[in-house]
Amino acid sequence: MRKNDPLAAFWMPFTANRAYKAHPRQLASAKDMHYWDVTGNRILDGTSGLWCSNAGHCRAPIVEAISKTAASMDFGPTFQLGHPLAFELASRVADLMPDGLDRIFFTNSGSESVDTALKIALAVQRSRGQSTRTRLIGRERGYHGTGFGGISVGGIVNNRRWWQGLPGVDHLPHTHDLARNAFSKAFPAYGAELADDLERIVALHGAETIAAVIVEPMAGSTGVLIPPVGYLQRLRDICTKHGIVLIFDEVITAFGRVGGATASGTWGMTPDIITMAKGLTNAAVPMGAVAVHRSIHDDIVNKAADGIELFHGYTYSGHPVACAAGLATLDLYAQEGLFNKADELGAYWADAAHSLRGKPHIIDIRTIGLVAGIELEPRPGAPTKRATELFHACFDNGLLVRATGDIIALSPPLILDKSHIDEMFGKIGELLTAIA
Ligand SMILES: Cc1ncc(COP(=O)(O)O)c(C=O)c1O
Question: How large a percentage of the chain has pLDDT more than 90?
Fold first, then answer.
């Protein structure tokens, strides 16, 4: 049975399984800026896999670190034990975080990082004698992974509608505003006041019921929503005023995507907790991390009774092979100056993206760092179809883009050069005309 239908068993995540299995597109190998599919076609990676292989694919130092560690210690528990690579990686990650966020909890994915951050926020409120603070605030259109915590604070309807999330969650409005901000480069001018909605939520529920606010500093998965000028600072100020823990979900923005190690650091922000994953190991081994302000860590750990202070963790928290990949990745980022790439190439990138303005069906182009979102007018009665068609046409013509709703998102490996940028936007322009 399986021999006759080799694609049947794998229930693919976030995939139109029936459509895919009728027309499969399978990747076979990867190197630097490219994938190759099973038929030998070369595909330029416009998305760093899934916003994660920031240093490009199959980089030798990472591959070597992984194989060396897998051969010397394949696994070592970090519950009541430890191993040097985990401590070393935690210190290295802490060094990259905004001031004060120097306590690092390891996870295996972005979803786990989000759940960990939410649990730590609830735990610290309790440690601070604020145990009525149990409410979590997310944002419409937010994506925080697929755990129950993440879908509860997330704001993408299809990820939520079948599952009752956590109780006691509220949402800020999203910041997408085509009428005022279409075709903005970098931070859109209008919308800082949307952060003030947090004051409305505080007035509605009472500050003493609210534990934490979580937002992506730049929302990626919903289709590249860049924060309006001043918006994040307003959120920071309102959280500080009301004793609310502010979590920035940097699963895609950390490790160079918008320049610097984090969007927070680059944009002059200091949240209380930062979640990460993806670029931490260049995605060569699954791993996530949560950077926590030292005062939060200390309030939980130092006020606890003897014994385990936080009843939370994963078998693979600080897995040695992932740590080895993480250390080699951070070395590579530093040696190759990859956190500067968004600055070095950002203007060229933005100009190339915005040069598509006027092509058929484009209703917005937005760019920041080495990220671009190209929003297409939905086909009447068939939302998402146009972007899906463009995604397929790009793939068949040797370019990997990401389609989300009717938005094409681009987030290439940071090792790209101008010729890759020309190729990406050149192909998208041609194919948009072709499928129009
Ligand atoms: C901001 C954000 N948070 C969380 C996640 C979930 O990460 P994972 O798929 O590793 O669980 C993602 C994934 O794209 C993300 O973009």
Answer: 98
Buried b (16+ CB within 10 A) or exposed e, 44-56: bbbbbbebbbbbb
Give me the amino acid identity at 377: E
Query: Which pairs with CB-CB distance under 8 Å and at least 24 residues apart come from 155-159?
Result: 155/222, 156/221, 156/222
d(C-alpha 407, C-alpha 353), whole Å: 13
Q: Rounded to the nearest 5°, which phi and psi values hold at 323?
A: -60, -40
Q: Count CA atoms closer than 13 A to 68's CA, side-chain side.
A: 12
Whether the predicted model's global pTM rises above the 0.85 cut: yes
Q: Which atom of ligand 1 is nearest to the CA of 114?
A: 4
Report CA dihedral (262, 264, 266, 270) to the nearest 10 degrees.
Answer: -130
Alpha carbon separation from 16 to 221, 382, 393 (Å, rounded): 17, 15, 17
- pLDDT given at position 435: 86
Q: Which atom of ligand 1 is nearest to the CA of 252?
A: 16
| List of the chain residues with pLDDT < 70 | 1
- 145 CA → ligand 1 middle, Å: 5
User: Distance (Å, rounded) from C-alpha 69 to C-alpha 160?
Assistant: 39
Nearest CA to ligand 1 atom 14: 221
Residue 403 · residue 373 · CB < 8 Å: no
Name the token pair of 183. Answer: 């075709």
Query: Which one, of 328, 269, 256, lies nearest residue 100 by Cα?
Result: 269
**β-sheet with 362-368: strand ranges across:** 362-368, 371-376, 407-410, 402-404
Burial zone of 247 (CB within 10 Å; 0-12 exposed, 13-18 middle, 19+ buried): buried
Task: Report the C-alpha gap between 255 and 411 in whole angstroms.
Answer: 12
Question: Under a CB-based contact definition with an 8 Å cutoff, are residues 375 and 403 in contact?
Answer: no
Choose one of 118, 143, 152, 214 to mutate for the ligand 1 pocket test, by most ligand atoms within 8 angstroms of C-beta: 143
Measured distance CA(364)–CA(378) in Å, rounded: 12
**Six-digit token pair at 422?**
């020309």
* Lateral strand order in the sheet of 210-215: 103-107, 288-292, 273-276, 245-249, 210-215, 135-139, 169-172
